[in-house]
Amino acid sequence: GQSLEQPSEVTAVEGAIVQINCTYQTSGFYGLSWYQQHDGGAPTFLSYNGLDGLEETGRFSSFLSRSDSYGYLLLQELQMKDSASYFCAVKGGTYKYIFGTGTRLKVLA
Amino acid sequence: ETGVTQSPTHLIKTRGQQVTLRCSSQSGHNTVSWYQQALGQGPQFIFQYYREEENGRGNFPPRFSGLQFPNYSSELNVNALELDDSALYLCASSFDRTNEKLFFGSGTQLSVL
Fold first, then answer.
1. Which of B56, B90, B106 is opposite residue A96, by nearest beta carbon?
2. Angle CA B46–B12–B113, to nearest 5
3. 3-state class of A89 per DSSP?
4. Residue B85 carries which DSSP code?
5. Is B40 on the interface with A (CB under 8 A)?
6. Does residue A43 have a cis peptide bond before it, meaning omega lies within 30 degrees of 0?
7. pLDDT averaged over chain A?
């Protein structure tokens, strides 16, 4: 089968650093993406890793290890507005996307 | 540049009915994909359209069908609605079928009674 595993919930305080892990098992793999979704809102693209290594975009970084079928999203200098659900997604086959079940991040003051 | 827009925002149907959801893709995008998101779950890929042809499909029955028009807008049709079809339906567009960045609309919340 095809699956992406993420922690269901993570809690951290403002200003802290949090890492959200994602392990995947898919029949094909072209890359790992991350999306943010606030309650009642649309998912918003955060990052994409097609190759192993770290990608940095402002306060957010994303990492991929293809040999370990593993990636993570790192959020630094947490802000209250970062409270949202975060999804990893794999392009697992030709034009087919698979999303994880999501990690709900709660940022406390 | 306009974003992805979906209509209607909310819809209530009864079991057995048919529904059509609509999506206007972001300007300059030729690829549209549709997703079903149940409460507390991640989006589930339904299918993707590129230049008016379906070129990718998830594990959804044939009663889920779609269209893409020459202006790259799209429709999702669901026949013989079931209670389990109640979900948020999201449309996403991308610059091209190989582009990794998906731009999502705010979705249509479908309730099947």
1. B56
2. 90
3. strand
4. G
5. yes
6. no
7. 93
pLDDT in tens, B67-77: 999 989 999 99
The tokens 């809102």 sit on which residue? A41
Structural element, H or E, at residue A22: strand A18-25
Radius of gyration, CA atoms only, chain A: 13
Instruction: Write down the pLDDT at residue B70.
Output: 92
Cis status of the peptide bond prior to B8, with omega within 30 of 0: yes
Residue B100 confidence (pLDDT): 84
Confidence (pLDDT) at B98: 81
pLDDT < 50 regions, chain A: none
With contacts defined as CB-CB under 8 Å, which chain A residues touch B33? 97
B-chain residues within 8 Å CB-CB of A102? 40-42
Q: Please, which residues 59-88 of chain B have a Cβ atom closer than 8 Å to chain A?
A: none
